[in-house]
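=== RUN LOG ===
request id: a7f3
mode: sequence -> structure
chains: 1
length: 382
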Amino acid sequence: MNKRQFIKTIGATTTLAVVNPFNALGLNEPFKNKNAKKVLILGGRGFIGPSIIKTFLENGHEVTLLNRNKTNTYLFKDLPLIICDRECENRMGLKAIDKKYKGVFWDIVVDTWQKSPKAVADFLDEFKGRIGHYHYISTISVYDKWDKKFIIENEPLNPLPSFPKTIQEEFRYAIRKTLSEEAIRERTDKYTIYRSHGMKDTRVTRPHDPNAEPFWPVRFHRGGEILLPKVKNHHIQVTDVKSLTGFINNCSEQKTFGEFNIAYDPTPFKDYVASLIMATQMPKKIHWIDGDFLIKEGLEPYKIVPLWKPNPVGSYYFNIQKAINAGLINRPMVDMVTDQIKGYTERHPLDDVRFGNVMNGKQIKYYSMDKEKEVVKKWKSL
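=== RESULT ===
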């Protein structure tokens, strides 16, 4: 090979490396998983669904959706979709699924949300023998009593009524979830149940409802003088959706089964405030105000002031050690807060949500900045 040919060859190799350095080096392209699984997501376009889908796609799995194709239809248009209404009685929606899917074996099925325990049971009965690993998003509300700190997964669950015979039978949220868990355990032992605790994400449960917006991240995003409750041993506990979805993927790949409490460790409120400050701008001033004084001024725990819940005693103290041991990795809380603010500013670019005020004839939760100023002024005058 002469000098001119050598330079030409080097030039071609360099160009190839710029275009596709992985191929040029003989390496596999990223996100091509040799052990890719066939994943079926039930729902998938609502609150937590998109984050779950993105996590599985990022890890190289083949994702198919199953839903009614009525919610956020613009999302994931390039993914296969099985149009199905699981809320039809007598499994009629499930039985109407296209025949080409009837013989498919799904390595992983993730049920993102289902308000009917009967619909959960119907799906598992209809797909019997065609599911390798079933994942269900549940809640810490399935526990009967929150009268002590550090509740673990084998604590007693809610007492239950008879299992519903129809889709339409209604139960409160905690009972729906507990009944659904019961239906799962009766039908398979290849399941993982995730008992979440107030999930936080870029998205919110009801994107067009101001009451679904995250109060503290929005309040710190606005800056100024901020009122905070000064309460002894004030802790919070929430679930970061991205940390949860990473754990779902990990449980899928490691074939980890069972029930898990999923959240951050109980976190001192002051540490949460530090994350809020890091994710936003430094407030002009913070006013730590005695909790009893706030209550006298109408700023009641939980109902009016979020993430302050002294009773029941176990509220923000669920034990997550089992999940940690199984591979749950919670990312820094500041990242969760940053995502929440990003989502809020995308939904409300004018920053027009006014907590504590009437908007479009509807009372918005929490308290207004005018009320905040009034309480701070009274506190400073003492």
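=== NOTES ===
The longest strand covers residues 131-139.
The chain is about 35% helix and 15% strand.
=== END ===
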